[in-house]
UniProtKB/TrEMBL annotation:
<dbReference type="GO" id="GO:0005524">
    <property type="term" value="F:ATP binding"/>
</dbReference>
<dbReference type="InterPro" id="IPR036390">
    <property type="entry name" value="WH_DNA-bd_sf"/>
</dbReference>
<feature type="domain" description="ATPase">
    <location>
        <begin position="2"/>
        <end position="200"/>
    </location>
</feature>
<dbReference type="Pfam" id="PF03008">
    <property type="entry name" value="DUF234"/>
</dbReference>
<protein>
    <recommendedName>
        <fullName>ATPase</fullName>
    </recommendedName>
</protein>
<dbReference type="InterPro" id="IPR011579">
    <property type="entry name" value="ATPase_dom"/>
</dbReference>
<dbReference type="InterPro" id="IPR004256">
    <property type="entry name" value="DUF234"/>
</dbReference>
<dbReference type="Pfam" id="PF01637">
    <property type="entry name" value="ATPase_2"/>
</dbReference>
<feature type="domain" description="DUF234">
    <location>
        <begin position="309"/>
        <end position="403"/>
    </location>
</feature>
<dbReference type="InterPro" id="IPR027417">
    <property type="entry name" value="P-loop_NTPase"/>
</dbReference>
Length: 463
């Protein structure tokens, strides 16, 4: 099923329309929709789509020979398949057809010389024609190694596209029939991976889907998290401990060390690998001048489903082993699911603000210092403006809204920025605005009239 990916499909089509030689690396984690994107492009532009398997070099060449012969209706090739990549690339260099290699890392695993061979034929033939060649893969480590300066393809690739999970509003296309709150809950659990979003029956309650589609050992959603990680990691058990620790809320280096019992040098190495694989991300307060050297960095899981799986499934395997799915939901999941969704809602708000045409000049992020935290801070240094925002995953009365905003004003005084002074210490400070986001906000019109910025759930879904 091809849903969304309009931006990425449009990008591929625009690159193809340029009529220039293109060597494109398309990569992203498994299940994110790379194959569906390539298939849709191939359908629209009659492209040759070749998907590799984990098999010996000779078997791969035989399979591709058969598929290419079928595509071009070539009887000679049917009876005399390619014996090496030289023959394959010479053949393709004579065609004007776009060529899409899916699971390209499998081909490299079977023949480590392939990048060098492709480099030669790119330089000799493909770069001198209207070539449109896409190399696609799920092994992020290998695909990014092809971008490195030690790779034979370094300097040859014309574009690289990292296919990220869908954002909230894009994911909503998978469950348009749900109420707005239920859309947030579904996204909080499943995240933006298309293959995961297709697994739920959205005509059933969320907890029933969790019980039947996630908490059963034979299901795709139960098994896939481990499978994906095992494909990328050489010491998965250690990484599981670190990911699980972060999922439980240990986001600072010291907290992760204490929870896992691992030494700092080892933790740092493992965190770096997880970051390179786009499984975790390191964040700092948006006000930090030197993010890389900041001592306020925290580590967060990027994928909502990984957060859910490690928080509730990995931690509670004994319930599932004993067939106690209902008890697991009652004891561990249902009581905290609303709070879990609250964190996802904060991310949805940040995501919305970063792409909103209403705030084009602001850089948005979070702010924290010791025990204080502000959900949303937007900086516009060029025009000396700042926005402070609070996000609540609840419906607020006008009284609660004003109390929350008053507390936000008090907290905002502690924020250091500009010339490294607290915002309350700046004599002629910048323009400051205060934002409140809730499911519903009572007295919204009056709050807007008083100069506050107010957003509700409907604004995030519909606008």
């Amino acid at each position: 099923m091809f849903l969304n990916r309009k931006v990425e499909l449009s990008l591929l089509e625009n690159l193809h329309a340029e009529g220039k030689p293109k060597l494109i690396l398309l990569y992203g984690k498994r299940r994110v929709g790379k194959t569906e994107l390539l298939n849709e492009f191939a359908r629209r532009h009659r492209a040759l789509y070749l998907v590799a398997r984990q098999e010996a070099y000779e078997g791969q060449l035989k399979k591709m020979s058969s598929e290419i012969a079928e595509f071009f209706d070539d009887d000679v090739l049917r009876h005399s398949p390619f014996q090496n990549y030289d023959a394959l690339f010479i053949y393709l260099a004579q065609k004007e057809t776009p060529v899409l290699f899916d699971e390209f890392p499998y081909l490299v695993e079977a023949n480590r010389d392939l990048p060098s061979i492709l480099q030669e034929y790119w330089d000799r033939y493909f770069s001198k024609k209207k070539t449109f060649l896409v190399l696609c893969g799920s092994s992020i480590a290998m695909m990014e190694s092809l971008l490195g300066y030690k790779s034979p393809l370094y300097g040859r690739r014309t574009e690289q596209i990292l296919l990220e999970p869908l954002k909230f509003r894009e994911a909503c296309e998978f469950f348009p029939q749900l109420e707005q709150e239920d859309k947030v809950l579904a996204y909080a659990v499943l995240g933006g991976t298309p293959a995961y979003l297709l697994e739920f029956d959205y005509g059933k309650p969320l907890l029933e889907n969790i019980r039947d589609r996630i908490l059963q050992k034979n299901t795709f959603l139960y098994q896939d998290t481990m499978f994906v990680l095992q494909q990328e990691l050489t010491e998965p058990r250690v990484y599981y401990s670190i990911i699980n620790s972060i999922a439980k809320g240990n986001t600072r280096l010291g907290e992760i060390m204490n929870d896992t019992g691992l030494e700092k040098s080892k933790i740092t190495k493992y965190l770096s690998v997880l970051k390179d694989l786009h499984i975790i991300e390191r964040r700092v307060p948006v006000t930090e001048k030197s993010p890389e050297s900041s001592k306020k960095g925290i580590y967060l899981l990027k994928d909502n489903y990984f957060k859910f799986w490690f928080r509730f499934v990995f931690e509670n395997a004994e319930y599932i082993e004993q067939g106690r799915q209902e008890k697991l939901i009652g004891d561990k999941i249902s009581p905290v699911l609303n709070n879990f969704a609250g964190f996802a809602y904060e991310e949805i708000v940040l995501e919305y603000l970063k792409s909103s045409p209403g705030f084009p000049d602001y850089i948005f992020g979070r702010w924290w210092d010791k025990e204080e935290e502000i959900d949303v801070v937007g900086l516009d240094s060029s025009q000396n403006r700042i926005i402070f925002g609070e996000v609540k995953w609840k419906a607020l009365t006008e009284k609660e809204a004003r109390q929350t905003l008053n507390q936000l004003v008090e907290k905002s005084v502690e924020v250091k920025w500009g010339e490294n002074l607290k915002s309350g210490e700046i004599q002629e400070g910048p323009e400051k605005k205060y934002m409140l986001v809730g499911k519903k906000v009572g007295g919204k019109k009056r709050l807007l009239g008083d100069g506050y910025l107010v957003l509700e759930l409907d604004d995030l879904v519909e606008n």
